[in-house]
Design a protein that fits this description.
With about 375 residues, the chain is α/β, with parallel strands linked by helices. About 30% of the residues lie in helices and about 25% in strands. An eight-stranded parallel sheet has the order 2-9-8-7-6-5-4-3. Strands 1, 10, 15, 16, 18, 19 and 20 form a seven-stranded mixed sheet that branches. Helix 1 packs across helix 3. The mean pLDDT is about 95.
Length: about 375
């Protein structure tokens, strides 16, 4: 292997247990494994979470359900994305609970007449304005589901727009109020809403008392904080105890080491010129792999616990680093692109700030073709 991702299974499990321990008794925990489990490997992460007591897994798309079932993962799956009409039969056969926000989806399910009633969650819009129906339309859809022999109202869901991007949670609290009002209205009409769920990582950490019946946690289960603002709010709000441990280390091997004289240009665009005789190591990863081009001339990697700066532009499949001060670097040396090596670490947050992004995107975009290797501890 020239490049691979090590996944610390115990870290995933400890994170899930730590997050669950902060929730009220009885709340279900549904880690999100979409985006190739935030880059950690769909099957590796799903198995880890299943063994650590997850109640369900949140997925985004049908192929994820197929992959998980083929791998023998039997947990209930809650599919948070849209399923095309022609794929509904398969999604139900694979045992997916579906989120619905179009009457047409229910029409199509009724026409299919599934063997077992479809478990549906109605998505209500409370202020994020992406998927979801306004409260009136959502109630009508919920009533249709309750009256349908082909479907069961398994839950009602909403999604926060503005928890992790701020320490002012007024907008999020308004969304929560709207969601609770919607649930109350269903109750007053004698409708059992099933599982009420709205909390992502940030809300689960900051307001465990408002997690309702289930939490959908992604980034935090992988050991990363949703944002600096969430960390600050948690510290101020008395969650100093919560420890999250990143589980992912992205590695590669050096494929060449060479000496480059002073005054030479390195890479496309001649964006870097050596100021001294330089030992240069060539790495077999580039932006195709998820090593963002924004890291050009900015990032460093770790070799034997030492920093080696990126020189020149990141290419599609190749990156060059300066190992003048890492004399041990040689052909096949292990390189840490993201994660810890000795006392040094490159966090997803550091990586994201170099690339002008966020930790979520950085880990999710590590190319799926790169092997994920499950490791204990
Ligand atoms: C991805 C996702 C989550 C998890 O969000 P985090 O911020 O990673 O915890 C929760 N709910 C839905 C609908 C999602 O798509």
């Amino acid at each position: 292997m020239l490049t691979w991702v090590d996944v610390d299974v115990s870290a995933l499990q400890d994170n899930l247990r730590a997050l669950s321990a902060g929730l009220p008794d009885g709340a279900l925990v549904a880690p999100a494994v979409k985006g190739n489990a935030y880059g950690h490997g769909l099957v590796v992460a799903a198995r880890a979470f299943a063994a650590a007591g997850a109640d369900k897994l949140c997925i985004n798309a049908l192929y994820e359900a197929r992959t998980l079932r083929d791998a023998g993962v039997q947990l209930p799956l809650y599919l948070v994305g849209h399923v095309a009409t022609e794929d509904l039969a398969q999604a139900l056969e694979l045992g997916c609970e579906l989120v619905v926000f179009n009457g047409e989806t229910l029409d199509a399910i009724e026409a299919l007449a599934p063997d077992v009633p479809a478990q549906l969650h109605v998505k209500v819009e409370t202020g994020n304005n992406r998927q979801g129906l306004g409260p009136d339309a959502a109630r009508l859809l919920a009533e249709r589901i309750v009256g349908s022999p082909r479907a069961v109202l398994a839950g009602v869901a909403s999604h926060y727009a503005n928890v992790e991007d701020t320490t002012d949670h007024g907008y999020a609290k308004d969304q929560l109020r709207r969601f609770l009002a919607f649930c109350d209205d269903l109750g007053q009409r004698g409708i059992d809403a099933g599982l009420r769920h709205m909390s992502n990582s940030a809300a689960s950490i900051l307001w465990p008392e408002h997690c309702l019946d289930m939490v959908r946690i992604g980034i935090s289960a992988y050991g990363m904080w949703p944002s600096r603002e969430t960390l600050v709010a948690a510290l101020l709000g008395g969650r100093k105890d919560l420890e999250l441990r990143p589980a992912l280390t992205w590695k590669c091997r050096v494929v060449q080491v060479k000496e480059v004289p002073a005054g030479e240009f390195i890479g496309y665009g001649c964006s870097y010129r050596t100021t001294h005789r330089t030992r240069l190591a060539i790495l077999p990863v580039g932006y195709y792999d998820g090593y963002d081009r924004g890291l050009s001339n900015v990032a460093h990697v770790l070799i034997d616990g030492h920093r080696a700066p990126v020189r020149g532009r990141v290419c599609m499949n190749i990156t060059m680093v300066d190992v003048t001060d890492v004399p041990s670097a040689r052909l096949d040396s292990h390189v840490t692109l993201l994660g810890a090596d000795g006392d040094e670490a490159i966090t997803a947050e550091q990586f994201a700030s170099w690339a002008g992004s966020i930790n979520y995107e950085i880990v999710a975009r590590i190319n799926d073709r790169i092997p994920r290797v499950a490791r204990q501890g």
